What does this fold into?
Amino acid sequence: MPVSENSKGQKVWQLHTRNESLIRWFAYLLTVAAFMWCWAKISESTTWYFVWDAPRIAADIGGRALPPKWEYINELWVPIWDTLNIATLGTILALMMAVPVAFLAASNTTPSKVFVRPVALMIIVSTRSINSLIWALLLVSIIGPGVVAGLLAISIRSIGFCAKLLYEAIEEIDQKQIEAITATGASRWQVMLYGIVPQILPAFAGISVFRWDINIRESTVLGLVGAGGIGLQLQSSLNVLAWPQVALILVVILVAVVVGEWVSAKVRGAII
Amino acid sequence: MLKIDKLTKRYPTGDLALNAVELEIPKGQVVALIGPSGAGKSTLIRCINRLVQPTSGQAILNGVNITALGSGALRSARRKMGMIFQEYALVERLTVMENVLSGRLGYVGFWRSFLRKYSQEDIDEAFRLLDRVGLLAMADKRADELSGGQRQRVGIARALIQNPDLLLVDEPTASLDPKTSRQIMRLICELCAERELAAIINIHDVALAKMFVQRVIGLKLGELQFDGSPDQLTPEVLTRIYGEEDWEATIEKVDDEEAEDEAVL
It folds into this structure.
């Protein structure tokens, strides 16, 4: 009990008893000691010469990369267009698969909590846990290099993400509205249409543009493993140490991402 | 018209919410259902349209045993029971008109309801009802833009467009201010009189109930404690339903208000 009496008979209150305070201080001590120990270990296995050298190397690469090779832009129009298409179509494809999965996974709409829900949750977990670059790597070896592999990689990776957020939105809906629609004699599908859909529509739109925004970033690197888009140019430019081209590609990616972010912010603002 | 026979509901937790409730309500009668929180009032009206599945017993509406219906027949039976809720339970992001028309969902098919292609009769009726509840100008507003009293009026229109025989009303005034509460109760009772609708109204405010209904039923711990006219609600009866308390004020107040109403008339 942190309440005690002092010599004058007043009640004294403290957040923790003395023993609790001691345990806390000891825990802090251990944390700091562990941090110091790790620091020492990392320091031992670091070749500090390379680290001290880093600013010089960075300046060297920077010097070679600047100015960007602007005329190279003519070879980037098609890849950046591919990249945007991979992101957009991949998101649409993912949403088409994620919506049914979300309804099967939400505990208030699933047809069977014992059989169907675990399968849906399994789909969500397995697609979400693997990075899209790894999906792309797999798909490139299965269906060959190209835009299609990238598209599928993006959409598979996005199913779990979209379905998870959507099923959480479905589970949070106001049950009274469902009750009211059911009481009118509406069928199951009509209850879904009038009771559930209006309630999750803002969440759905928000999730869609959010994922599209993420997918633009992710699809820029898919080319590194041969799955199409601007990453392919990045890869080949890096291979031949064409730093001015790399610089231009990074600028283009930056612009694409900023535009994507701007669009998704506008859309979200308009809906909510 | 509505006959409830030994209706019992035991929740999976073991709580006995309704214990063999017997009740008969003739056409056109408005009944107030009073009782303390947890007495089973909400459960009773939800067992009638089977939003809650009763454990045993029967609810018979116009000769149809609702408790025994399969899902298709239950949907048709539900069309004849309009329901009004405490916190309105409107679909917040749909317009007032869509909310009213959603009362017709039991009558229209999936695609027509998806495309909002309601028949002209339904639309005429929706406008007539919105006019009747005084919300004609609001038809195109979204439901979440309305005030509490206005939302409850939309809820009433949604229940009535079902063309029901019975209204199940769950605490219609619990979220409203005293004046709006009276207006809503008056509206419900007037509409029931106009259309010869029977209604069961769950209500906490005993004084308000006494002002408007012909019959009061008292429920306590899932059992009927009282069934009679509002004048028969004596302090002894209220003590039996709710427990010991000074009830004189509740009853006095009603007398005064009735006197006022008469004076106004």
Q: What stands out?
A: The radius of gyration of chain B is 19 Å.
